[in-house]
Amino acid sequence: IQLGAILAVVVLYFKKLWPFCADNGRDSGFSRHFRWPVVRLWCKIIVACVPAAVLGLLLDDWLDAHLYNSITVALMLIIYGIAFILIERRPRVPTTTKLSRITYKQSLLVFSWLVLALIPCTSRSGSPIIGGLLFCMRRPASSLFPFFLALPFLSGSFFLSLVSSWPMS
């Protein structure tokens, strides 16, 4: 499932995620081969991934042992449902309108909401969308950024589950 989600985001948003550009047959120097706004976006994504990677690796077994139960699932569904209703009803003036305008601080704050997705039945896109809306992003930016943030998060989770399920000889 995670590999499918990763491929869907990459295929759908390839042009927005690919940081390299063609030089159209002329060699114009190394720095001309990069789309710098995309490179900066990837830097923000990488900086924001560190907290979830560390917490995910440290708490994986504990989360499995203590939070995979019906009470947690029911509570998280209720909590996120109420959170979306309350956030949509509050008056706000979004200051960040485009992905290129997201700051490193905002990316860390939004990704801190993605850390909550380590809890079972927490939406991997819903929790950072809530964070983006809380931290003054417009809906398009707060909806798209979590999909980009989820790429390393899902990739790490995919490879971790692949390695753990690999038959040992």
Cα-based radius of gyration, to the nearest Å = 18 Å
**Which shape, going by the Cα principal axes?**
globular
Strand content: under 5%
Largest sheet: none
Helix coverage percent of residues? 55-70%
**SSE run:** HHHHHHH
The residue-averaged pLDDT reads 80
Q: In DSSP terms, counting alpha (H) and pi (I) runs of 4 or more, how many helices?
A: 7
List segments where confidence is low: pLDDT < 50 over at least 5 consecutive residues: none
Q: Multimeric state of these chains?
A: single chain
- Please give the alpha-carbon distance between the first and last residues: 26 Å
* Helix/strand/pairing category: mainly alpha
Per DSSP E runs of 2 or more residues, the count of β-strands stands at 0
Structure commentary:
The chain has 169 residues and is mainly alpha-helical. It has seven helices and no strands. It is globular and about 50 Å long. It starts with a helix and ends with a helix.
Which key terms come to mind for this protein?
169 residues; 68% helix
